[in-house]
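// run 5 | inverse folding | seed 20
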């Protein structure tokens, strides 16, 4: 099912590019962005990232020398600034203990090991951990976020939790590059086509196997 979904979404968005979708290339900036975007929009997170960039704070060394109180005004636009400032500092200290982004990439640790270390940091949940692992460290994992759950529920009629969706995808799709693309495509599709309200089924490549569409067609 997930391989088929990936192929159809690739057809749906033939020009899709993971790096362009992120809008930032730097793995460290993506890590910080992954915390800032919790419970807010990417545009609010991007404003907070820009605030950090203006202050020349977007390096592990610069952030690692700050206190949470220093950080709060700079990230206010992302909301939850008190909690997020502390989470960012915990993440930065963990990263620096392991030699920075390069140190983590070279470390002989399994993805699950790194994932459990990230999850042990207060403020890092599954979605943030999987996003950091996939897009900062090129690890083969994927977020079973609300977009993935909605898509799966509409296509198959089955509601799955985060862990179940993640495992189902990882059972079928193994490479980091495919997983990173699939997640980006699911989010893009969820924003543009399979929207929460009024999905645009007529133009959707997933129609042939979508129970939601099938049901709506029979009722019309
Ligand atoms: S056919 Fe409609 S409900 Fe089904 S995945 Fe596409 S947009 Fe979503």
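// decoded
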């Amino acid at each position: 099912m997930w391989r088929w979904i990936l192929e159809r979404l690739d057809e749906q968005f033939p020009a899709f590019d993971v790096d362009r979708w992120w809008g930032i290339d730097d793995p460290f900036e993506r890590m910080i962005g992954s915390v800032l975007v919790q419970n807010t929009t990417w545009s609010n997170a991007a404003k907070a990232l820009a605030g950090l960039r203006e202050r020349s704070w977007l390096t592990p060394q610069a952030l690692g020398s700050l206190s949470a109180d220093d950080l709060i005004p700079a990230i206010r636009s992302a909301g939850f600034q008190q909690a997020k400032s502390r989470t960012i500092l915990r993440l930065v200290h963990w990263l620096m203990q392991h030699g920075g982004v390069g140190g983590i990439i070279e470390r002989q640790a399994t993805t699950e090991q790194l994932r459990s270390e990230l999850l042990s940091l207060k403020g890092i949940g599954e979605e943030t951990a999987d996003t950091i692992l996939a897009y900062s460290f090129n690890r083969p994992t994927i977020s079973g976020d609300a977009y993935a759950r909605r898509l799966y529920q509409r296509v198959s009629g089955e509601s799955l939790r985060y862990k179940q969706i993640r495992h189902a995808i990882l059972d079928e799709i193994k490479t980091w590059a495919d997983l990173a693309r699939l997640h980006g495509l699911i989010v893009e599709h969820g924003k543009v086509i399979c929207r929460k309200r009024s999905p645009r089924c007529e133009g959707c490549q997933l129609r042939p196997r979508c129970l939601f569409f099938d049901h709506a067609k029979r009722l019309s």
